[in-house]
Amino acid sequence: MAEVKRLDKFISECFELSRSVIGKEVRARHVLVNGEIVRDPATKVSVGDLVQLNDLEVEVFDKLYFMVNKPKGCVCANDDANYPIVFSYIEEYGIHSCHCVGRLDLDTTGLILITNDGQWSHRIASPKHHFGKVYEVTLAVPIDEQQIKKLENGILLNGEKKETAPAGVTVKDPLHIELNIFEGKYHQVKRMIAAVGNEVLELNRISIGDLKLDPNLEPGEYRFLTEEEIGMF
Predict the structure, then answer these.
(1) Residue-number span of the structural domain to which 141 is assigned
(2) How many other CB atoms are found less than 10 A from the CB of residue 233?
(3) What backbone phi and psi angles, to 5 degrees, belong to 164?
(4) Both 90 and 192 in a single domain?
(5) How many domains does the chain have?
(6) Alpha carbon distance 13, 64 (integer Å)
(7) Model pTM?
């Protein structure tokens, strides 16, 4: 069954316009659906319908799913007074209605997912679903066996009441590891590494669950997820 939504709600999602402004545009006969002038802002539209507002034209969509290769220096927020936001890299209608699935720190790079599907993002973010997140970590000093064992066993971080879940550690070389964690505590990777007596110099997320960052995406680039990728969660 085709998804149905109100015309004014859809236009608001696309163009970040208020309902009152949209109502004025409709009354001025500036809004068309499938080539026909619309007189009621509450008109129902379905996925695949073509909506035209003045000289702007967009096909009605339902859910949006994006993969972004987040660069350094931007934040995973819908608005920020001090830093660029990751949404500014996505030039698609409807991005204003979306949110980040979790967050990456200002100086952390790599895979971030963006969607307007709240149930989907909740499944990914919830620890009970056990979607591991793998990070490439560049360390300040070579990692040793004792540090690896502590990470693999779980660590009680400062200010926490419960140890982290056991992490997976893959050593690429003494200064570079891949760390697979199953939670999303504040600055978790940096805090875990600090707790074992080391320091993170660079941090890059390369996968969430079975979904890997597309190697063809340069920092700041994005693409839509495929149906198969959406179905991984």
Answers:
(1) 132-208
(2) 21
(3) -65, 155
(4) no
(5) 3
(6) 11
(7) 0.89
pLDDT digit string, tens, across residues 173-209: 999 999 999 988 889 999 999 999 999 999 999 999 9
Rounded to whole angstroms, the Cα distance separating 11 from 19 reads 9
What radius of gyration do the chain's Cα atoms show? 22
Selecting among 62, 80, 105, 117, the annotated active-site residue is 105
How far apart are the C-alpha atoms of 155 and 142, rounded to whole Å? 19
210 in active site: no
| CA atoms of 193 and 135, how far apart (whole Å) | 12
Q: Which of 40, 59, 78 is the last residue of a domain?
A: 59
Q: Which two tokens stand for residue 60?
A: 């009605």
DSSP character for 5?
E
Nearest CA-CA partner of 145 in 188, 167, 172, 174: 174
203 and 136 Cβ atoms separated by less than 8 Å = yes
In degrees, rounded to 5, the angle at the alpha carbon of residue 208 between the alpha carbons of residues 112 and 14 is 35
**pLDDT tens sequence across 62-99:** 899 999 999 999 999 999 999 999 999 999 999 988 99
Give the DSSP H or E segment for 19: helix 19-27
